[in-house]
Amino acid sequence: xxxxxxxxxxATALSVQALRKVFPGTQALKDVDLTVRFGEVHALxxxxxxxxxxxxxxxxxxVPADAGELTFNGRQLPAAELTARAAYELGFRVVHxxxxxxxxxxxxxxxxxxxxxxxxxxxxxxxxxxxxxxxELIERFRIDVDPGTLVRDLPVSVxxxxxxxxxxxxxxxxxxxxxxxxxxxxxxxxxxxLLLSTARRLAEMGHAxxxxxxxxxxxxxxxxxxTVMRDGQVFAEHxxxxxxxxxxxxxILGRRADEIxxxxxxxxxxxxxxxxxxxxxxxVIDVSFEVRAGExxxxxxxxxxxxxxxxxxxxxxxxxxxxxxxxxxxxxxxGMGPTIEAGVVMIPEDRARGAAFLDMTVxxxxxxxxLNRYWRGLRFRRAQMRQDGDALRARFGIKAPSGSVEMRTxxxxxxxxxxxxxxxxRDASVLLLDEPSxxxxxxxxxxxxxxxxxxxxxxxxxxxxxSDLEELAQFVDRAIVLRNGRLIAQVSGEELTAHRxxxxxxxxxxxxx
Length: 513
Ligand SMILES: Nc1ncnc2c1ncn2[C@@H]1O[C@H](COP(=O)(O)OP(=O)(O)OP(=O)(O)O)[C@@H](O)[C@H]1O
Known about the structure:
The protein is built from 17 helices and 22 strands. It is of the alpha/beta class and 513 residues long. It has a 6-stranded mixed beta sheet, with helices on both faces. A 6-stranded mixed beta sheet has the order 16-19-20-13-21-22, with helices on both faces. It has a 4-stranded antiparallel beta sheet with strand order 2-1-4-5, covered by helices on one side.
């Protein structure tokens, strides 16, 4: 899909020179140089905390730089002087993964709110004009949506398309620099393609696209060029046409790609630990399966297939209308308290939002839930707790100046890793994980599955829901596929490939349509 550009390079849209930014305890950007051209999709990749978001925040004028020069579409200015308004006027736009749209308003109303409401002579809003403009934009950006549809009824990828159209509505020429900040992180696999095509189409219109993602297959598919950042610096720039995913991984991590490949269980799985039989709960209908000691079971299914509800119902957070769940032969009767006590731990998808205590320190965030481990009679073993904190941060590659900095100062991916570390350090016999690698870099993803594997090798079992089918194929031992709440297939061995899972997830018969 990536266009190989053989013609002479197009004009420079954005040039960043010697950009620097220091936060207390961290030099987030160290003399960053970057050139992005009109007509290209330029990916920006790198490990969690390498400085991608800081760069985008500076370019959008919301965080001031310490030093450096910026040139937007031929207009140069000192980076420290850029304001949000100037960045906007110079044609810089950012669309985040969770665009701030109003769910209960229509597409047309959202577009109008993101620009200026056209008013009639009486200063009343000219609704006809609102709809006409929205229809024009929808057509221009080729979005498959009716302007009157409420945003809450749209698939996530279409919402992001609407956000892009909203951000670009007042642009006269096609000379914007559009930063798409992890636009696919929360997207189900089926919708990713649509968004990548949108990025390409914007580039073909003439805009310059800066595409931030940890999903390297998407980077390879959608980008012309990729800049790799490491530790606040630009480490390399590649053309994707001259690159393989393995080389890109090495460029990002400084480790060979095969060092981070997942490992399937090496010993035959043991006795069933978790048995689910005839379970119905919410959208889940009559689902039965077993997970054995030593096994990581994957769950594939589209958004709405019941995959999250299945985990929640096992965990006791969703009432069951039928069926039984047993742990090592003993019934788990529901209710989260007894389920946790029995040794089942669930790590939910929205963990960063729901479970990160931003004004507490990083180590405090990891210690919640295991504090009683450190009491010896009346003595609290603080030194041991600190030592364990250091070890955990090293094990999960959590980038922080120390364990005593506030959680809010960590990058998004490092917050995710901190919360995962909190849960993975508990003694669990069954782990239920919903999208464990969302927002984390390719190295950390392998570390997370490594931690899960350590737990299963010791006799535990894990059930993992993820929309990334490549990830399932790489890291789990066996997978079940859900559709419309029902279990439609179990896949293992040679059949466990992303391609096969994709077929099963999307087509009624499990055969290519
Ligand atoms: N407000 C802040 N105060 C202190 N340090 C900060 C602040 N914001 C960011 N940092 C630090 O700057 C570094 C770069 O963070 P940034 O968010 O740019 O990383 P990133 O590449 O976007 O990571 P991710 O892939 O996890 O989103 C990190 O070490 C982070 O902890």
